[in-house]
Amino acid sequence: MSENSLPDEIISEILSPALKVPDEKFADTYEISPFTEYSESPSAYLLVCKSWLRVATPLLYNVVVLRSKAQAKALGQALSKNKDLGQFIKRLRVEGGYGAPMRTILKAAPNITDLCLSFSDIFASDNTVGLCDGLASIQPRRLILCDSATRPLHNKMIEKLVDAIAAAIPQWQQLTILHCPYMDYIVDRPGIVEALVDARRLQEVAVKLIEDAVEAYSLLQDCPLRSIQVTNPVYPDELEELNWEEQPTSLKEITKYETYRGIAASSHVIPTPQFSFTPMASELREVQDKIWSRVLYFLLSIPLSPGFLEDHCVSPSRLPFLLVSRTFYRLGLPHYYAHVLLMFSDYVSKFTNILERNPSLGQHVRTIVAGTDLSKPYDTDSHLNDESDPMLPITSKLTGLTKLWGSVNGSHNWAGDFYALQCAEVPFTWDAFLAAVGSSGRTLQEISIPIGYHSGAHNPAVFAQLDQLRSLTWICSTEFALDADNVPVGGLSKLTDLRILRAGASFLDLFARMELPALRKVTSAQFNPGFWSFLRSHGSKLVEFDLANFSAEDLETPILEACPNIRILYIYSRFDQGGMLKVEHLLKDSTAANSLEKIVFKIEDCEKDQDAGWTGFLGAIESTQFPQMSEIQFKACQWPKKERDIPKSKWVRWSELLLEQGINLTDSAGKKWRTRLK
Length: 678
What we know:
Among the domains are: 61-201, Alpha-Beta Horseshoe (Leucine-rich repeat, LRR (right-handed beta-alpha superhelix)), CATH 3.80.10; 543-678, no CATH class. Helices cover 33% and strands 15% of the residues. Strands 9, 10, 11, 12, 13, 15, 17, 18, 19, 20, 21, 22 and 23 form a 13-stranded mixed β-sheet that branches. It has an 8-stranded parallel β-sheet with strand order 1-2-3-4-5-6-7-8. The protein has a two-stranded parallel sheet with strand order 14-16. Helix 1 packs across helix 3, helix 4 (69-81) packs across helix 6 (101-108) and helix 8 packs parallel to helix 10 (192-199).
């Protein structure tokens, strides 16, 4: 691309979204800084070409956020070498003391309009002298003060900074805006409030809580205040506690807030509905039905998703839409029952009665989520004594079912709560499962539900009927009779994701004999001889492998030798038994894993006494043995939020250890550590 192919104005518009820092983020006063996310520096845009360097430099320096001593030192050196750079700085956020470089920065940036200072990040070992000396060199329009909501810090460095701010306020002729989360904390910093009152220039104040608005008005009423903004939503009971109606009229006029439900405090006029209007009255009934059916689909057919139980508890009822008219009832009923949640036994009995009165609804049900309280609990070695099966009348009437799911303790099993599922009460009997396969076997795409044990050896031909099944979570100890002529070798031809959480000995033998041409991912909580036979049959097909409840003692052969084409390996184990994981458990020394790209450790915590073991494992990983490896993810990883925590963080140490091999260590959100300036 030619340097002059685009005007600077267009390049600026292109780069602005990438380099711009939103004001709500810059002015965030939460105790944990919003800038703790670790990502590539936006300065990388300046290295693309000379025209990008020329255009992006003012954009990059427009908002400066300093979070470490090394950053402050580097910025101070840059401003000393190039005096023009300081002219670009309009907003400055300083999350610490950072010593003498702050004097250089502030004196080189006379155009600062917004200054954000954080008391919660200044410790006794920090140095605020440079920051204090430089405050007189600027003329900010807005001052933002961050402080801890739980334990405000008090030390000599903070006291010096408070005194310096109080001394600078009379000189800041343009200061008209103050952001302070908690007024009682600023009162606890002597001198600042007095200086603001004496200056009598404040016009706007922003606080977090409504009670802080009242206190701000009381403290600063001698200032020409025009607005007090409350950033947190206000609960009605907060207004009652403050006797809001009895507060001064001038306070109520300038205070701006939103109620908890997001409704503005000011009133709105609601137009009167016109009941005489009938939509599409002149259209044919078939046309009306098609349009209203589509509308009702979006209103009533709400697919179940992760977190659906929480949504189910707080979401508004869909029932009123069915009661609008007979047309809405007729057209909406199939959509209303497309996804059915059967959490308790009374849900089951009610839905059974509905299917008996409206048999045609059975063809419209797409998802069934069965809870853990549908019948009497039983374990893997027993079955229901009661001959009645509450789910059997339902599953036998559903002809278009695509998803059959189970839920455990308010959390659906797809979230990975495998062990809770193994111990769960069983909502489905074997007969109810067979009925579901018999009526919807050709449409079922996902099965993930605990199934009760049924004595005797059963015909495995049931799996031949599931020719559309793509995901199977098997939690059942029922055994199968494996004769030469009854194994459905070509069954489950579309199965890509198999999760084996509890199974009888014959289940793995059965699946080892099947072709399973589409199988790509396996999760297993069982590591018996049958499982290794299964891997010998299908290990080369797998691209993802999830070792649930894994222990090094379970290994018959190195994992990547049994599954050489795996790209992502998931491991869930605390390694408190059988020793820590070692590289030789994954791969022999003389071989290389040419496909493995990522390892995910799904453990929720890393005990301190295991740190040495993890250091040994991560330090033994070499890029020559894992040439495609780019990431190791720990669900338990928590990156440090403050500069002083970085040297103490084991995650930082491990990350830098892996970076030597070109591998990123990431947290549960997939964010990697970016090495800080030192």
